[in-house]
Each structure stands twice: as structure tokens, then as C-alpha cells.
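Dear colleague,

Thank you for sharing your sequence with our group. We've completed the structure prediction you requested, and as agreed, I am returning the results in plain text so they can be pasted directly into your records. Please verify that the sequence below matches your submission; if there's any discrepancy, let me know and we will rerun it promptly.
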Amino acid sequence: MINATEILEKQQYASSQEYYHELRWLEEMMGFDPDNKAHKEKYVNLVMTYGSRTPKSYALKEQLDAMRERDIMQNMNLDNPIAEATGVPTGGEETSMLHRRRVQIGTNDDGTPIYKQIQAHSEEEANSRIVQAYIDSGRIREFTTAEESKVEAKSETNFKTYAESWMITYKKGKLKPRTWQTYNQYLTAQLFPAFGSVNIEDITTKDVQAYLNANKEQAGKSLKNYLNLLKQIFDSAVEDKIIVENPAASSRIFNPSDKKTPRKALSVDQLEEIIDAMHGMKNCEEKLLLALFIHTGARRGEVLGLRWEDIDFERNLIHIRRNNTQITGEGAHIGTTKTENGARDIPFGEHFKELLMPYHSSGYVFGGKKPFQSWDYDKLMRRLKKRVNLHGATAHVLRHTYLTMLAGEGVDLKTLQTIAGHANIQTTMDIYVSPRTDKITAAGETMDRLLEGMHNKR
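Please find the predicted C-alpha cells below.
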């Protein structure tokens, strides 16, 4: 009778780490000592009984299955066929089933097959005897030679070759141009120097962690981005059955860097100084650029992608619908916003409306018929910095200042997330909303007054 518990235990062992490591250990031993029959017998027997878990065992399993299927077909054509597995009572006991196999152990000079009858009381015993028959006849070399040649072919796939193929096959055309360029920069500058020439199936979790540790001086976000890209590549290799497990997905992996790129908002006094200087500007492009950054909190690419028809002067709304990204070797690329939530409407007041109206035109707000290139923007910013003390502020700092001031004035986080165009509200809370010094001071003074009142009651 079939024992359900034994079947379950067999399935659990076949999918366990213990079985995987046992296969890998035997593969290493066979590499060190190719003539060791005991290792080969145990390895083949395990694969026949529990299945494949490593690239080497996948190749062997294919050979064994093909050989078994051919033997079965030949058996069916014999005058006195014996099925691959038959349950025949022996010794008068109904529960004792005899497993029979007829396996080909060689060929005669005229090419006709030579068979050997195998009998056993369990499937495991039958598999073990089949393996032993293959070893005794020398036919085991057919399996090991074939699977080793397949593994050698797979082992020629180094990380660089696989990653480049993965990028072309699965990412080209799917990623936005800027993201495509960023991925290539990560690979070329970071991952290829570390893993490029290494066999992809030889890269371990220890190797990945060692790479992160060696680069702990970089920002934590940068290491997180590199690790995420590694995970994607290794996930694909798992699906392609080149590797069994993703070495970058282990729970042991940690980010050793606690460095964060500081984002500090301008103070109220600094912003007032910049606004005063802006009102005295004569150059329309300089004034428009600064006004849009200060009054909208939009991203640089969103501002440079604006067209005049995106500005609704009747409803006092700016419709953010596109993004201007700069692609190396290609120049300006007008595409969708950074995230789905990036397509949004940003409100503005009458004062800002008065700033915009005199310059109202058509086409792109910056560039007219054609969008700004990166050099156009850089040149404009250089001129702007000569006329105004920006206190080191960039487009991103001005965006950060806008959102921080809104948060400081009590705008709820959900509204703030919508105006910022963030996909995740946690991003709004963790990155862009910084405490204002004046608010912290005021909070301290408030607490001091409360405590003072308590002291006076004594």
C-alpha cells in the first residue's frame, strides 16, 4: 500500500535545503575525484529518487528520463514485454509488491541491445540497482559525460553576459529612457567591475554581502538600488534554471551604509531674500524658472516639460502631464511623469498668476517649439546664480522647501502627497517633510509655558 506519510516526507526532503546542499557537495566531490564510483552512484540515485535541484542535476535528469523513455519504448516492442514498473505479489503476500525493470546495459556487435532484469521490493531499491547496473556495465559514463558537457556550456555564462542579455530582452522598450540609462550606469560603474567575469552560478550570498560591505562608504540609497538590480537579474536566472536560488534575496543580506544624502530646506529668511531678488529680474526665462520652482514644488523635469497650454489661468491650475529627461547621446526626451501619481494638478494663487501672465505664449514654457536641452538649462542656471544668491539651492532643494513649508503650515499629508506627486505617502513623510527650526523652537516654548504653569500651582 502507498504510505502517504512517506510520500510527504519524500516531497519535503526533495525541496529542502539539506537535499540541495547534499547535491552540491556530491558535485564538488565528483569534481575532485571523477573516478569515485560511490559518489557517482549516490548522486545518480538521489536524482532518480528525489529529482533535480541544481543545474548539473537538471542536465543529468534530462539524460536519465530520455534513456528511460527509450528503454520503455524498446520493451514495448519486444515479444514478451515487461512494463517499466509492475506490482506482482511475491511469496504469497498480497502486500509485498515486486518492482521489475528491464534496463539496457550495452549493445552487441550487431547493434542489438543487451538487457538486464532488475527486481526490487521498493522504488528506491529499484533505482539503486539500476544505477549499480549502469556503473557495472560502464554505461554510467553516458550520463555523466553528457550532463557535464551541458553544465560546462552553462558555466560559460558569466554575470556580464547574462545581465546584458537580460537588459536587451526584458528591459529595453519597457523601461523609461532615463531608467534604462541609470540601469546601464549601475551595471557599468558598479556591478560589472565586481561580478562581470564571474560565473553567474558561482556567485553566492557571501559574495553579494562582501560587495555591499566593500562599498559601505556610499549612500545607503545607492547600495539599495544596486541590490535591487542584482535581485532582478538573479530572479531571471532562477527562472531560466541557470541557478536554483537568488543569492541577493537572502534574509541575511543587510545594507551596511547608514549614510543619507542630506536634504535641507531653505529657511524662511533665505527664501524671502531670493523672492525679493526675483522681482527685480529683467530676464523672463530666469524669472519664470525661479518662480515655477518656488511656487509649484514641481520636479526639474516636470518644469522643463511644461507647455503653456498646461497652465490653466481660468482655474489657477498647472497640469503636470509630462517629464523632460536628458538621455546621454540623445538629448531631451519628453515622456510621461516619473510615477503614475506624477500626473497631477498643482494650484497657484493670484500673485503667481500676475508673474506668469506677461510671458504667456505657446509651445514649451522653456524652449518654445523645442524643449530645453540639458546645456540650455545649465546655462540658464549659471546666469541665475550670478544674479541671485540661491544659498546653494538647486531645483530639488526648492521643491523640498515648498513641500516642507506646506507641511509646516498644517497641510494634511494626503494633500501634500498629491501635490508632490508621490506614489507612496511614506516618501512624503520620510524624505521631503523636514522639521522647521522655528516650529521646533515654538514647540519647546509651548511646553515650557505648560510646565511653568504646573510649577506655579505649587
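Summary note from our side: Strands lie at 88-90, 93-107, 113-120, 311-312, 317-320, 323-327, 331-335, 344-347.

Kind regards,
the structure core
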